[in-house]
Amino acid sequence: LYVEQGLGEGQTIPLVRDQAHYLFGVMRMAVGDPVLVFNGRDGEWYCEISIANKRNGELVCCKQTKPLQMPPDLWLCFAPIKKARTDFIVEKAAEMGAARIVPVATEFTNSERIRQDRLQAHAVEAAEQCGGTYVPEVAELTKLERLLTEWPDGRQLMFCDEAEVGAAKQLAASSAKQWAILIGPEGGFSEGERAKLKSLPFAHVVSLGPRILRADTAAVAAMTIWQQALGD
Ligand code: SAM
What we know:
One of its GO terms (cellular component) is cytoplasm. Specifically methylates the N3 position of the uracil ring of uridine 1498 (m3U1498) in 16S rRNA. Acts on the fully assembled 30S ribosomal subunit. Helix content is 29%, strand content 25%. The strands form 2 sheets. Strands 5, 6, 7, 8, 9, 10 and 11 form a 7-stranded parallel β-sheet that branches. By secondary structure, it is an alpha/beta fold. Bound molecules: S-adenosylmethionine (SAM). S-adenosylmethionine (SAM) is lined by residues 160-162, 183-184, 186, 188-189, 207-209, 211-215, 218.
């Protein structure tokens, strides 16, 4: 169960209506039952239900079962596409251990607005289901130009482009620890964006194979290739 509060021995955690409904209404749990809880900062904790009402309740934190497990320092930057496919990308990025998820507006981006709170909730659900102790932050929609202008020193960029040939062989040779993957929108990157991205010293242009993948497939494929070459 994901909660916002800090976790520590003896800490009590008030439950909001949705949490109470899930634990007591759906899961049929009662006072004294165990619940594993995380907040994305303090690891995973074994808690027990101390109050169980229909609309609220409380847990007591007993002991830590897992420390916080930070994922590798990998950002997934992607141009938002249709709603369900954007949700899919966020869910899979959180499952696969992205540290940060950055929606990026490119020239051909289909959707100019995102619901950051909804996407963040998807990231929480994905972390919950895969037993993670960390929840990646979903950043606000950022223009590609601004993202590149404010690019942090030392972070490398795996720029995925279907116009590239040959696989990502050179990635494994890198000793950099901070990375980002960039996936374009349905229409791909413009020629101007391609030229700009290829000229950047921190960018490594990568092919994901000879076929043009859907953006959501490309995000999963790119994360898999990155994990294989550089993840732990
Ligand atoms: N029209 C399809 C869609 O609706 O999703 C294809 C979109 S494809 C142009 C979207 C992005 O996926 C590209 O900008 C690129 O970042 C990535 N991509 C897809 N296939 C790729 C490949 N073979 N190699 C590298 N990147 C790829």
